[in-house]
Amino acid sequence: MTSDRHWVLASNNAGKIAEFNRLLQPWGIEVSAQKDLGVDSPEETATTFVENALIKARHAARISGLPALADDSGLAVDALGGAPGVYSARYAGEPADDDANNRKLLDALANVPDAKRTARFHCVLVLMRSAEDPIPMICHGQWPGRIARETTGGGGFGYDPLFLVPEDGCTAAELPAQRKAQVSHRGRAMAELRERLGDSVA
Ligand SMILES: O=c1nc[nH]c2c1ncn2[C@H]1C[C@H](O)[C@@H](COP(=O)(O)OP(=O)(O)OP(=O)(O)O)O1
Ligand SMILES: [Mg+2]
Question: What positions does the entry give for substrate binding (predicted)?
Fold first, then answer.
């Protein structure tokens, strides 16, 4: 099915790219970040993770001529009715700024007690074999946790310093990269993709 051994990774987020390089390492597929192939970032105009991931994958596949893997992801906070959700990257405005986003989230939850600070990360992956692929492969992973009262840890990216992982008793920014790759929304979505690709990857 996906016999092509060179994919474009339809993301400009260095944190995501590092995680994908780790996750894809055993797959026997060469992956190039889109900017290394001269692919810019399209506007994310949709209101769902699925549609934004389709936009990113189709754009990268069209320009590069390679199969494209895109990730649209974000943090859904229960006390905020699922916000920032699809708008996670732009929560505090554009251009995207992780520190400003984290500060805005802490402010928004200032009066929310610990028991109500539940949240989850979502990751939707789209794999398109070509820009005209009529059946893109769509996978979804979730990662439940809670929002801390202050940032802790220097690893990861985005909202990781505020995302408490219940099983580990620390924030996602304190987890070893290997552990985050196993348990995160992205790791889970990638496990689904791997399963569905079956024998077509190494
Ligand atoms: O594991 C994660 N750990 C912490 N934060 C995360 C994670 N996964 C997504 N996030 C946050 C970052 C960003 O605020 C938004 C994704 O937005 P999203 O548009 O999908 O990515 P992006 O604009 O950073 O890069 P790109 O679109 O080029 O892939 O959710
Ligand atoms: Mg984006």
Answer: 11-16, 73, 157-160, 180, 185-186
Going from the Cα of 128 to the center of ligand 2, the distance in angstroms, rounded, reads: 18
- The number of beta carbons lying within 10 Å of the beta carbon of residue 114 is 11
Asked whether the ipTM of the predicted complex exceeds the cut of 0.90, the reply is yes
Binding positions for Mg(2+) are 43, 72
Q: pTM (2 decimals)?
A: 0.97
Q: Which of 104, 88, 86, 108 has its CA nearest to residue 96? A: 88
List of long-range contacts for 132-135, beta carbons under 8 Å, 24+ apart: 133/61
The verdict on whether 72 is a catalytic residue reads: yes
Query: Taking residues 95-108, what's their average pLDDT?
Result: 98
CATH number of the domain enclosing 27: 3.90.950.10
For the record, the structure tokens of 155 come out as 């690893």
